[in-house]
Amino acid sequence: MATTSPPSVPNLWDPAWAGSELAALVYRSNLLASDRSIVNFGGGNTSTTVIEPDHTGRSTNILWVKGSGSDLATIDARGFTGLRLDEILPLGTREAMTDEEMVEYLARCQIDPSMPRPSIETLLHAFIPHAHVDHTHPDAVGAIVGAVDGERLAEECFGDEAVWIPYLRPGFALSKLVAEAVAANPGAKLVLLAKHGLVTWGASAQESYAETLDAINRAATFVEERSEGRPAFGGTVRAAVPEEQRAALLAQVLPALRGAVSVDGPRILQVDVSPAVLEFVCGRESAATSQIGAACPDHLVRTKRRPVWVEFDSEREDAAVLRRRVVEAVAAFQERERAYFEAYRSSEDVLSDPSPRIVLIEGVGLVSVGRTLTAARLARDLYLRAIEVMRGASALGGFVSLSDEESFAVEYWPLELYKLTLAPPARELQGMVALITGAAGGIGSAIARAIAGEGGCIVASDIAAERAGALAAELGEVARAVETDVSSEASVIAAFRAAVLVYGGVDVVVSNAGIASSAPIEETTLDEWERNHSILARGYFLVAREAARLLRDQGMGGSIVFIGSKNALAAGKGASAYSSAKAAELHLARCLAEELGGEGIRVNTVNPDAVLEGSGIWDSSWREERARSYGIAPDELEEFYRARTTLRRNVVPADVAEAVLFFASPQRAVKSTGNVLNVDAGVAIAYPR
Ligand code: ZN
User: Fold this and answer.
1) 16-26 pLDDT, tens per residue?
2) E-strand stretches of 273-336
């Protein structure tokens, strides 16, 4: 007898809810997907059939079904497609139909050609003789349909209320099989698709929703009862690595992993050490279980068939061993993926990137990989679902998955790949991470916005933690603030380590943190001299040194951009401490360009001048000091600077950001290093020579 009650999915339907049938479909879909253990991101599909007038006014049976590529959690009415059901039903008498024929045929049944392409599982919805149909991939049901002895277990759990359908890729044949099985079993309340998912229905939207929940809760209770007393994944084989040691390990391993997976462009990494992941990576049977295959065909294009499993014994082995093993495991995975592709490909197939999307490190955690932060998080979220399915299926006696041939047929299925084409086009800095010092200031925040605008992730480093936090909050999940004192060795090391742990590494480093002070030489105190040199010359050195270490470690090239100053080239009267430190930065950049060029690491300098807008420096005594040295009032400085430029323009932060973007971009500036780009509206004494 069960001593604990299994987790039960609550019915969230508001009895007072009212609306049209299409609105009810939207409401039901959103409710189902509000729980990701029921509906994966982008997975599952729902439908409702209504009798409504078409554009001619004739009463028509309209099947509203999810459009391909949308997510049920956020879908609205525009995400559904209306189809003339009476034109679809005659297909039930056909023997076979190719995917292309099906897509073409359904396009002609749309009540409005501008609606999205209907779900690849549309025929399943059309052929089931009920007005409201849900198709989902819930964890608890996944455990039964993904168990070694699934059909018998399904019978024990649901009796003759469930119809069992052996695995078949979605499409015409599967839809027909389901329709025939449902017709032959009038008492059936649900369909279980082997190694795939659940289909339920109802006479109303509310009833269909309730039937889906009922099936899930029955499955969850069954799994819970059967696994009673048995530890998940064969019990724990080792303890999880303590948090501090884990961070230190990951900081040393992730850059090499990032280099290894970034075969055709940079990748973002995401670390997950949630309790479910730690239980899995410490499980006795997890290494073997993880290599069986995907937990749902829907996961394949995002997670691939299998993760990389890396053995690690933290008590006997160190970071260097782990690092080497991770790199070797990724290379072996890539080789296997290429062989898998060659084994099953047709002449039209194109190899998708052969790198793993999920890397599991024994005792340490999960690392997901994506071309974007969103893709890395999606792979992670789907794998968390896979862990739940494997936990349940293992408790029921063993987990089974698609064969390699079946996997390939889904992973490289044009109809599945179509979903991916609906994603926004790649942006120039996609997959890249930029660490910007002094990010909270006027120039720094303009650079951060510009890089984020091109798809890069941002590590906003600044000594002003609160303002850096505000900038990161403005930019959203693609940015993280890190409090940094660039004159402190430990603080700079910590900033780079944070970048590695948050996004996996860094591609662009913008050294921008600065101060300025102005005084005649006799009045320049030693403190003032050292303050300028400590934040500027020494700060740029410390940041560049960590940048070089990390960029070399990743082995992916990279770009370091120094924000210099006109004063680096032109003698600034009454600002010798500042100007000499700026000159040191400029020469440091050129030395590093020589030193790091062999590894494809470019080092360039952008020299702005008189950027007053949004500047902390210009809000300080620097403004008054500069005005005094020119013999003008402080509020005359903008006009003074404009007048002295060749172009008669003031320079603003966005101008500087544009120049940084050029040097940051591997497409635009791949052959530019050791360079200086003045952004000063033309100051003749600073023309490089
Ligand atoms: Zn499905």
Assistant:
1) 999 999 999 99
2) 308-310
